[in-house]
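Hello,

Our lab assistant flagged a job as stuck in the queue for most of the afternoon. It eventually completed. Since we weren't sure the result was trustworthy after the delay, we are filing this so someone can double-check. Below is the sequence as submitted and the structure that was eventually returned. Let us know if re-running is recommended.
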Amino acid sequence: MKGTIGLVSFGLFFLCACTGSRPADLGAQNGRLRPCPDRPNCVSSQSEEPKHAICPLSYQGTRTDASQRLLKLLGSMPRVQVVTATPDYIHAEFSSLIFRFVDDVEFVFEDADKNIQIRSASRLGYSDFGVNRKRVETIREAFEKVK
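-- returned structure --
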């Protein structure tokens, strides 16, 4: 019985520890998202490093319409919590199904180019096995379909 309680306690601690703390430096500074760390668990449309680079999303129409479309899309995805939504910035947290690892996904709207710059990064660990890149491409594909 004592061993079972210890194992359950460890399991709960492990699951809670997987979320990590929300980074204090999220958000855009002068229209730029923070750079990806030197780990393969981050992609950014503003990165010039091939291992982190990914294309931004693009939109037609107004920023308001694009933002509403994106928020609707994020709301339809599993295990997503929109943390911040302003007229030019969205921050969402994605949690993995089993271990509840949290990834931060940020969007910055650029009216001039009708682009949405995006950054998706794991809070913990070294590798994400391509999860962040795949997530952005899934969002891109769904965003292009949502009208």
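-- support follow-up --
The delay was a queue issue, not a problem with the job. The result is valid. The domain at 35-145 is CATH 3.30.310.80 (TATA-Binding Protein). Residues 27 and 79 are 21 Å apart (CA to CA).
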